[in-house]
Amino acid sequence: MTMPDPSLAPGLTSFPNLARLASRGNRLATIVSAFAFAFSGVSFYETVMKQPQLTAYVPPVLHYAQDSGGDIELFAIPVTIANDGARTGTVLSLSLTATNTKTQVRQQFYGAYFGDHPKTADATPRAFAPLSVQGRQTFSDTVRFYPVGKVRPFVLDDAGTVDFVLTLETVKPSNSDILSWLWRTDPKPLVFTRQLPWYSQQQLGFRRLAIAMKDPGWTPIPAAEPDAAAK
Fold first, then answer.
1. Could you say which of 40, 165, 183, 194 is the most buried, measured as most Cβ atoms within 10 Å of its Cβ?
2. Which CATH number fits domain 54-214: 2.40.10, 2.60.40, 2.60.120, 3.40.50?
3. How much is the pLDDT for 223?
4. What's the Cα-to-Cα distance from 57 to each of 100, 161, 167, rounded to whole Å?
């Protein structure tokens, strides 16, 4: 004969199986509530608290050009900055290190203007200004990089390959909460290589031509052929 369990509620002493099921149901409800609380905490962090996480991207093709009649070399690079955080991130400046892989000439450049290299010397430039990238948003534009300090020797005085390092200088938190300091991460420098296929001082200096520099390992995807049924 099975004796009633004295630890069970008075109304359930005659139904021990129901009491056990009720106890298990309470534990399950507690576990579900804990998971819901954890999920809401993660969701709140991802949508509100997550610090800005900025990442820079460049396409396989950029342009090399010269300014001031050929006295200054520059690189026009389409740049996309993505913010994977929830809070706004601000980029104060962009810096570029360019190294000729053959001659080892290295120069520092800074983001000076927005837009492609103009074909006329009297074009009004758009000066580079700090960029605010909202959470989960992106910014894209072409940035023209000019040398910092001395302009000679040129990184390129002939066809060749150049190693680049693009660095973003961002706003650091000031008088903010401790979590902003703990969770903040600086953008990683972007390292890439591009190749100048040919060089002409006359075309660059006097005709203000911009020459495309491509990723040595990049091959354009061929256009898809029209569907035979659509012909």
1. 194
2. 2.60.40
3. 75
4. 21, 19, 11
